[in-house]
Structure formats: structure tokens, C-alpha cells
UniProtKB/TrEMBL annotation:
Source species: Franconibacter pulveris
GO biological process, one term: rRNA base methylation
Source species, domain of life: Bacteria
Gene: rumB
Catalytic activity, as annotated: uridine(747) in 23S rRNA + S-adenosyl-L-methionine = 5-methyluridine(747) in 23S rRNA + S-adenosyl-L-homocysteine + H(+)
Swiss-Prot/TrEMBL keywords: 4Fe-4S, Iron, Iron-sulfur, Metal-binding, Methyltransferase, rRNA processing, S-adenosyl-L-methionine, Transferase
Segments passing through the bilayer: none
Protein name per its UniProtKB record: 23S rRNA (uracil(747)-C(5))-methyltransferase RlmC
Protein function: Catalyzes the formation of 5-methyl-uridine at position 747 (m5U747) in 23S rRNA.
Coiled-coil stretches noted in the UniProt entry, renumbered to this chain: none
GO terms, molecular function: 4 iron, 4 sulfur cluster binding; iron ion binding; rRNA (uridine-C5-)-methyltransferase activity
Cross-referenced Pfam families: tRNA_U5-meth_tr (PF05958)
Class of this enzyme: transferase
Active site as annotated: C334
Amino acid sequence: MHCALFDAGRCRSCAWIEQPMATQLTAKMNDLRQLLAEHHVGEWAEPVSGPQEAFRNKAKMVVSGSVEKPLLGMLHRDGTPEDLTSCALYPASFYAVFAVLKPFIARAGLTPYNVARKRGELKYLLLTQSTLDDGMMLRFVLRSEARLEQLRAALPWLQAQLPQLKVISVNIQPVHMAIMEGEKEIWLTEQQALAENFNGVPLWIRPQSFFQTNPDVAGKLYATARDWVRALPVRHMWDLFCGVGGFGLHCATPAMTLTGIEIAPEAIACATRSADMLGLKDVRFQALDSTRFATEQGSAPDLVVVNPPRRGIGQELCDYLSRMAPPFILYSSCNAQTMAKDISLLTGYRILRVQLFDMFPHTAHYEVLTLLVRQ
């Protein structure tokens, strides 16, 4: 894939972009094999990849420049802004939205936040697109509510220009730090969640709930988890760190009991809504800390699915699972280093199957799915 910004040295986010995709996959597989070298792996499944460009469903744009000439993209370490509205990782549908948002910023009087001067209001624009109907969610991250009424007044023009914006909200982030969003979300549309669908499973995307940024590969990841789980004798499963319920809802059957745990209430609301749409009755999603929930239980189910953040599941949960000895553990990870460390802490388990999913082309990062079975 060619990138003029990379060639000019203006953006190095895709550090591996000059390497052929086959070379990138080989390097990632070699890394994963090295991380799991001390373990016997029953089956190394073929790595899964997707498109090498236009694959992202989300843009997180730092807003800089002036209100008349805003720049949408990122800030270099020295504070220099870089406009990324032509980035090839975004689908073409994003470019038209960026083109309208720039004049809208001026129309709404949303002065870009200046980090050095600690002045201005508009910090970030967060744009997400659904593959279901190409509907979009747009979030304005503001320093305060000072320009909120101006934004509301200008909003009809934006909606007329971009009817694909189904969900629009304002997030208030008052802290002078590189934090993407704050706790307060203000809705500007009646609709508050973006409809999505992977493999016939309805999913919902809300502000402040995690959702995979590469839908093509994410769909394959969920389908693989479903196929692996449904080949197992599972009657009751936990989906820990469940997010909006992607893994649990794909794997569950009407004859199965599903318990999903996630710390974010917004994500739990999405998962519950999806379960209702699927007609699943023996399902419970709760907004709790996954480790605390698990370790307070006196027994474990047939299967525990974990999809933790980059830090992994940690010593406490590993110790609990080792003691409770569920027959199967399905571990989905975006950080194979912490996954390998966790697997070493899970005593009494062997790796039945491993598969790499290239969720992040042109970088060293990848997703991995690992099925562990009790020995």
C-alpha cells in the first residue's frame, strides 16, 4: 500500500507499510510462536487477514489549527499538527464526512483546543461507521459546555449535509491531558446506539463502549470462536471482559446459559439489547469488574471466555481459574505478550488450538485466539 504521508516522513503509524502483507504475517506468526515456545500447541491454525487499506470503521481525530482552517488528525511529539483526512486506512465514505466537518467547525464556532496555550473548546472528533447500513456515529469531545448551544444551533445544517449521521453526541473532557474522553456524554440525537451485525448476530455500538476497529477481521474472529465453542460440550459459559457481547452472543445457543461481565454499563446495555433481539432467554449481562465477579463465585462453568484489555487477565484471575478448573478456557487477546504470561500462570491446562488474526495491518500488533483445555 502506498502512503504519501509515510513517504514524506510525516506519519509513521503504519511502521510496516513497506513490507508485503505476506512478510508481515510471517513476522507476526514468528513472534507468536516464540512467545508460546515453552508450551505444546496442539494445532497452529492458518493466520487470518483482511483488506490492507480502507479497513477501519473508526477515526479518532485530534482537532488543531484554527476555527477557520481546522486540521483533523494528530499531533507530533513536538506539538506540530498533521492532517490525516486522506489516510488510506479509512474507507472513502469517511473523506466526504471530513470535508463537511471542517466548515461545520467554523459555522458552529468550535475553536480547536490549543494544547500549548490551554485554550479552545474542540479537542477531538470521533467517527464510527456501521457495516450494516453505513450509518455513522459522530462524537464531539469538548473541553466544556461553553459552546454547546452554538453547536446545537448549527446541527441541523450538518444533519442536512450528512444524513448518514445516525448518532451524534458531545463528550465533555475538561482535563488538560492526552485523555480521549471524559465521563459526561450529552446526546444531540434521539438515537443513542449504532446498529451493527456480524455473522447474523445484531450488535450495538454506543459511546464509551469498546468495539473492534477492523470489522472484516473481527467478523472472522467471532465466527471462529463460535465454531470452536459449538464443537465443545458446553452448557454454561462465562464471557468475561465481554464488551458489547460479541463473543458470548456468537457462541451461545438456546440450550446454553450465558453470563457476560463487563465494567462499562454502556457496553452491557448493548449486549442485553442484542440478546433480546436474538431471543436468548438464559442470558445475564452485568456491569461488574470481571476479576472480582469471577473470584467471588464458588464454582466455574464449563467454559470461560476472556477478552481482556492489553494488560491481560492477571495473576488473581489466573489463580482462581487454576483452582476452579473449568474444562475449557477461550482466550482472545490483542497483546500476545500478556496472554503468554497469563497462560504460564494457568496451571493444569494445555493449548489445544491457536489462530492469529491480523486485525492491525502494517503494524507489529495482532489479535490471537487460543483454546485451552484442562489436562
